[in-house]
Design goal:
Largest sheet of chain C: 10 strands, antiparallel
Strand order of the largest sheet of chain C: 3-2-1-11-10-9-8-7-6-5
Oligomer: heterotrimer
Strand content of chain B: 25-35%
Largest sheet of chain B: 6 strands, mixed
Strand order of the largest sheet of chain B: 6-7-8-3-9-10
Number of helices of chain B: 11
Structural class of chain B: alpha/beta
Chains: A mainly alpha (279), B alpha/beta (302), C mainly beta (257)
Structural class of chain C: mainly beta
Chain lengths: 279, 302, 257
């Protein structure tokens, strides 16, 4: 039955135009960005190279599809979460707004099952979206601009060999997917509380922006509370590019993020099961 | 003795300070077409939502086929189909797709989807998106989704809302047919004439409290006055006589028919008076309408 | 008598020669820096051109590069060509270079000692380093910097520079060691060169700092000014082809950046 319910939710999610907005945005923007890089990347490369020229003989070019992908992965801080929230925020609240709770919640299926199905469908959407992002950035970028060594900023410049870069990107996108699942769960939690699809998006987006700001501002009190805010662990995907890969740190980050996911899910379930449906 | 299908005991629900349902209790027996009446804000919708686990009551419980809704929640709704207020669907999907999603939840086959579409007369519009449907079509689709699981108890809230007279008649006929097929029906409606025509029993609530409950026939006969139609001539003479009688009120004439309000006990006197006055009486028909009865109980307009 | 006078004259003459050769050295047993340079230069000049494959590994605060393979060609006096798949950065410091270039960066250079180093007889030279010439230009040293001393260990058997140290006061900031292989015609080329360097952040007036990519999540930066940072670079040379008579046209650029 859960599989059927998930199938239902997938049909509902992808039946809405707003769900395709994110894909459309990436499909239009990414080729544009890559084209822009192909035309004016020398400045970017020079920035990287300038600092090394005095002490090193520089050979080859760092400009390739990997570099462009690495740069565009910074969309994962704000832009990609927003596009995911467009769906996650509406998946429960939208039913309340449209009145369709009155046809789905009067059946013998428990609210718990329905909510879990919605949550899993939201996760599936998130995973598909990140895969699409990976295809449009890494796939398209590597086809258009070629591949080579990857230059990353990790307390200095780190050059990762081409053969290592593919694996690192796979790892980075995997971790990024997990971060986006946290984002989706947060927005889903708000969605289960209200009957308006916009509120959860605004609420979740505000929390993420504030959390990132707190992690960025070097004030004592912020530095003290930063470890307790889940957004402080959103950089887990960048650690895939560190050398050596800090597996212990990544493990700790994953545990913290998982804890937050579980808390958000529990709140969603308790809230949704006890809620009076008045719309 | 018919089995009790739905039992409401001491149901109460408040929203803030306002008590929407106040100690409501009644039962619906198997095979009944049960009317649920009340003015706006009487608590009908709250009661229906409580039956369907959409709202959690503050006190009391509802049992459907002996399964407590409060304890078992949605599991108690296995044999229930319902249409709650205005039917809302996923407008970006077709009618058939909407019903398919719900059929998956009810664990019924796609064949059943086609059956219910045919029952409500939407078989040829199944592939159209719901956003293109008129209110009447949505209403019919709402009834269709209520029938998907072959329910034994059907709860219909305003099922003829938005339908034209022909559509209304079709729904009434459908309700009668379903009842004949053994389905117990709870019908909440503001169209009293409709309840009068279709229902076998009814409950009237106001301000969250149960006012009256019983068979429609018995309740109407409880009324101590009725509207009586008199067809007699000459009209002027009839009017004069009627106006002279102090036990008659509310005299109205239309197309040669007089309508008067008269106490039931005085009905026999009017016949004698008219004959004594040498009036040609072709018909004296006492009509007790549910609307009159309802208004007398609630003192409210609909 | 006559023989004694001749012996005395010869001894004085030789002793005078030795004294004249030792311009800065107070010890007449050590050679002059110039003579060491000449010997080094002689060894170096036997190489007209060469090709080598270099596996470079860089671990510094500024730049890290796991093992990268480059193809390197050189022709006297200063033509180089480097090719690699992708991108590579090869440190200028530590590359095979003319001894004259090294000595030109030093002043007051003299042979200060001799020892056995890794079972090799070596002369130890010391000079004052001219700061502007330091190849790690990004480590801009404080303008009123402390004295910079460079020490060189020269293998006297094959006249190769096998080790160098650069010190700021007594704090060693750079150490370069090389292991050589001998080739026909008394040619010696390194098979491995290791650069180690350390510096205290309080010694530097400017540092290149990277704040960890574009991440809006910034970890606490180190504020401890006495922290010692270190780094290493390893270069392993292989597949030498020496004196193949490479044409100048082969080198598209004179000296790459």
């Amino acid at each position: 039955m859960l599989i059927k319910l998930i199938g239902n939710e997938i049909i509902k999610i992808f039946g809405k135009k707003r769900s395709l907005l994110g894909f459309l945005a990436l499909a239009v923007l990414m080729p544009l960005i890559i084209w822009g890089f192909s035309k004016g990347a020398t400045g970017v490369e020079q920035d990287f190279v300038r600092q090394l020229e005095g002490s090193f003989i520089i050979v080859g070019s760092v400009f390739n599809g990997f570099l462009v992908t690495y740069i565009t992965m910074n969309f994962l801080w704000v832009h990609i979460p927003f596009l995911i929230m467009l769906v996650a925020g509406d998946v429960v609240a939208g039913e309340g707004a449209s009145g369709t709770f009155r046809i789905i919640l009067i059946r013998k299926i428990s609210r718990f099952q329905i909510l879990i199905a919605k949550l899993i469908a939201t996760y599936l959407y998130t995973i598909i979206f990140i895969i699409f992002f990976a295809i449009m950035s890494l796939g398209l970028g590597s086809l258009w601009l070629g591949v080579g060594d990857l230059i990353v900023l990790d307390e200095g410049i780190l050059i990762l060999p081409q053969e290592m870069a593919w694996g690192r990107f796979a790892l980075a996108f995997l971790f990024a997917t997990y971060v986006m699942i946290v984002v989706a769960t947060l927005c889903f939690m708000f969605s289960s509380m209200v009957n308006n699809g916009i509120g959860p998006i605004i609420g979740a987006m505000s929390i993420i922006i504030i959390g990132l700001a707190i992690a960025n501002i070097p004030i004592d009190i912020f530095e003290k509370i930063s470890p307790y805010i889940f957004t402080s662990y959103f950089d887990i995907w960048q650690k895939a590019f560190f050398d050596p890969i800090p597996w212990r740190d990544i493990g700790n980050d994953a545990i913290v993020l998982t804890s937050y996911i579980l808390v958000f899910i529990i709140i969603s379930i308790v809230q949704f099961i006890r809620k009076d449906i008045s719309t | 003795m018919s089995e009790v299908i739905l039992s409401i005991k001491n149901l109460s629900k408040s929203f803030g300070k306002r008590k929407a349902v106040d100690n409501l209790s009644f039962e619906i027996k198997e095979g009944e077409i049960f009317g649920f009446l009340g003015p706006n804000g009487a608590g009908k919708s709250t009661a229906i939502r409580s039956m369907l686990a959409l709202i959690k009551p503050d006190e009391g419980d509802i049992a459907i086929f002996d399964k407590s809704v409060r304890k078992l929640k949605n599991s108690a709704l296995e044999h229930v189909g319902a249409l709650v207020e205005r039917p809302d669907f996923y407008e970006y999907l077709s009618a058939r797709r909407n019903l398919s999603l719900l059929a998956a939840m009810d664990n019924v086959s796609k064949k059943r989807v086609e059956e219910v579409l045919k029952i409500v007369g939407l078989a040829d519009r199944g592939d159209d998106k719901v956003k293109a449907f008129s209110q009447g079509m949505k209403q019919r689709l709402g009834i269709a989704q209520a029938l998907l699981s072959n329910p034994k108890l059907l709860i219909l809230d305003e099922p003829t809302n938005g339908l034209d007279p022909r559509g209304m008649k079709e729904v009434r006929d459908l309700i009668r047919k379903l009842s004949q097929d053994g389905i117990t029906i709870l019908l909440s409606s503001h169209i009293l004439h409709e309840v009068e025509q279709v229902c076998t029993s009814m409950a009237i609530i106001n301000l969250g409290k149960l006012i009256k409950i019983g068979s429609v026939h018995d309740l109407l006969n409880e009324s101590d006055s009725s509207i009586t139609e008199i067809k007699a001539e000459p009209l002027e003479k009839v009017k004069k006589i009627l106006e002279s009688l102090n036990y008659i009120s509310d005299i109205a004439e239309s197309d040669g028919t007089f309508k008067i309000r008269i106490a039931n006990k005085d009905l026999k006197h009017i016949t004698r008076e008219l004959i004594k006055a040498d009036i040609d009486v072709s018909a004296i028909i006492p009509r007790t309408s549910l609307e009159d009865y309802f208004l007398s109980l609630t003192g409210d307009s609909i | 008598m006559k023989q004694l006078i001749i012996y005395l004259l010869v001894y004085m003459f030789i002793g005078n020669l030795v004294a004249q050769d030792n311009d800065e050295s107070s010890n007449s047993l050590f050679p002059t820096a110039k003579s060491v340079l000449d010997s080094l230069e002689q060894t170096y000049n036997r190489i007209e051109d060469y090709y080598t494959r270099i596996d470079v590994s860089i671990k510094t605060p500024m730049l890290r590069m796991p093992r990268k393979r480059v193809d390197f060609w050189f022709k006297q006096p200063n033509l180089i060509k480097v090719e690699t798949k992708g991108f590579a950065a090869i440190p200028k410091l530590g590359m095979i270079s003319s001894p004259i270039e090294i000595f030109d960066n030093l002043s007051n250079i003299s042979v200060i000692g001799a020892e056995y180093y890794n079972d090799k007889q070596v002369w130890i030279l010391q000079g004052e380093l001219i700061p502007d010439s330091l190849m790690f230009q990004n480590m801009n040293l404080a303008e009123d910097s402390n004295k910079l001393i460079m020490k060189l260990w020269v293998d006297i058997n094959n006249w190769t520079l096998i080790r160098s140290e650069t010190l700021m006061d007594t704090f060693k900031i750079v150490e370069i060691t090389s292991i050589y292989e001998s080739f026909p015609n008394k040619i010696y080329l390194p098979v491995e060169t290791n650069l180690l360097f350390k510096y205290r952040t309080d010694m530097m007036s400017k540092m290149v700092r990277f704040h960890g990519s574009n991440s809006p999540i910034k970890k606490s930066n180190e504020t401890d000014n006495t922290k010692v940072k270190s780094g290493s670079i390893t270069m392993k040379y292989s597949k030498y082809k020496i004196n193949q008579g490479i044409d100048d046209e082969f080198f598209e650029e004179d000296v790459p950046k």
